[in-house]
Every structure is written in C-alpha cells, then in structure tokens.
Automatic annotation (TrEMBL):
UniProt name for this protein: Ribose-5-phosphate isomerase A
Keywords: Isomerase
Cellular component, GO annotation: cytosol
Gene: rpiA
Reactions it catalyzes: aldehydo-D-ribose 5-phosphate = D-ribulose 5-phosphate
Binding site for substrate: T28, G29, S30, T31, D85, G86, A87, D88, K98, G99, G100, G101, K125
GO biological process: D-ribose metabolic process; pentose-phosphate shunt, non-oxidative branch
Molecular function per GO: ribose-5-phosphate isomerase activity
Taxonomic classification: Bacteria, Bacillati, Cyanobacteriota, Cyanophyceae, Oscillatoriophycideae
Residues annotated as catalytic: E107
Subunit structure: Homodimer.
InterPro entries tied to this protein: NagB/RpiA_transferase-like (IPR037171), Ribose5P_isomerase_typA_subgr (IPR020672), Ribose5P_isomerase_type_A (IPR004788)
RNA-binding listed as a keyword: no
Length: 229
C-alpha cells in the first residue's frame, strides 16, 4: 500500500546516505525499520563496510541483529556519525514530536549525540504546529505518575496514561517506566515546554525534540509514484 511504499522509499533514502566506517544511531518505529533493513542489505552486498549501530530501543536492537548490523553501546564509542529515526510530527522549523513507540528517552540521547540526525517520515507527519495531530509523550517513573498528571493539568495539558493494547494495564518502557500522553491546545513555544515538562519531578523525558534535526526526508506519492524529498 501507499504508506508502506513511502516508508520503504524514505527508509532506503536515509540508509543510502550512510558511509562506510560510520557509527549509526538506529531509531525506532516502522519507518526507521526500513532504513535498518536497507542498511543490512548494503552490508550484505559489500557496498557498505564496517558500520556499527547504536540502537534506541529493544525493537531497534532486535531488527539490527536480524539484518546483521553489528551493535555497540554508548560507553564504548566516542561519537555517533549519523542517526536515523522517525517522528510523529514535524513542524516547519524541523522540531519534532516523537515517542509514538514509547522509545523517545533513548532516542533523544542517541539522536542528539549524532553529528547528523536524519528524520524519516511520510508526508502525513508534516504539521504547521506541534501538537495539532499528536499528543506529547512524557516518560514518568511509576511512583510519580499521579502527581505528574496533576502538574501537567496545572500547565494546561490534558494528560492520559498510555495503556497497553495487547497487555493489560499501562505500557511499560524499555526503562520500566510509564508514558503519559498530553494534549495541549496550542504549543506556542516548544523549546520552553520541553524544559518545563522535564523539570517536573518524576518526569524522565518528553517527546519534544527541539533544534535537534539536521535533515528531514519525506516520503510521498507524486503522480502515483513514491518519491522522497
Ligand atoms: O517512537 C518514535 O519516536 C518513533 O520514531 C515514531 O515516532 C515514528 O514511528 P513510525 O515511523 O512507525 O510512524
């Protein structure tokens, strides 16, 4: 289908930008999954050599191993050359909302460390203003989720605890925490909101990525054909 085609195209376009001997931040989500697959293909063909991946989630780690990408950890390496990751919203300033996959805490660590952070999205993720189509995910330590919900309400947000789909009870992150999704009527200053949210005691990380993106690759269907810009 069109969405899958767009994701494959943009995932491949990102994977094609990786050079041999790079340390690559491997993002989370269905679009980045194609970039990881195409990186594996390039390694297998011998066209790409000696890359090492830093995964941003258990999902990314499992995919990287499946596609034969060697992995490392942040205490072993001293740099990340390029990170490829998805997003749930991208605004005209290339600020993002991420965290649809509840992986934004490790993603923000890896993506912000990278010399070049490339975002891969299909055109449905482009918005004029952050928060118009997606709630802001906030990772919270379990013992504090109730006071954090109250503090977010005081900020004018409408918080809701993210519940599992095939799991009874709340979603649990790779760190063993919970996620609160917050609807804000209008996010006029994402940089300020990002700091305010992370300053609430009990909050580990939120999904606002401000002034972190170097390049956004957008998959779209033009004249019936998938294309990337
Ligand atoms: O959880 C995340 O931040 C993912 O990158 C998500 O935002 C994008 O996932 P998708 O490519 O499956 O839409």
């Amino acid at each position: 289908d069109a969405s899958k085609l767009m994701k494959q195209q943009v995932g491949k376009a990102a994977a094609d930008r990786v050079q041999s001997s790079s340390i690559v931040g491997l993002g989370t989500g269905s679009t980045t999954a194609y970039a990881i697959q195409f990186l594996g293909d390039r390694l297998k063909s011998g066209e790409l050599k000696d890359i090492i991946g830093v995964p941003t989630s258990f999902q990314a780690e499992v995919l990287a191993r499946e596609y034969g990408i060697p992995l490392t950890t942040l205490d072993v390496i001293d740099r990340i050359d390029i990170a490829i990751d998805g997003a749930d919203e991208v605004d005209p300033q290339l600020n993002l909302i991420k965290g649809g996959g509840a992986a934004h805490t490790r993603e923000k660590v890896v993506d912000t460390l990278a010399a070049e952070f490339i975002v891969v999205v299909d055109s449905s993720k482009l918005v004029d203003k952050l928060g118009s189509t997606f709630k802001v995910p906030v990772e919270v330590i379990p013992m504090a989720y109730a006071p954090v919900m109250r503090a977010i309400e005081k900020l004018g947000g409408k918080p809701e605890l993210r519940m599992g789909v095939k799991k009874a009870g709340p979603v649990v992150t790779d760190q063993g925490n919970m996620v609160i999704d917050v609807k804000f009527d209008s996010i006029d200053n994402p940089a300020e909101l990002e700091k305010t949210l992370n300053n609430i005691p009990g909050v580990l990380e939120n999904g606002l990525f401000v002034n972190t993106t170097n390049l956004v690759l957008v998959g779209e269907i033009k004249d019936g054909q998938p294309s990337v810009r």
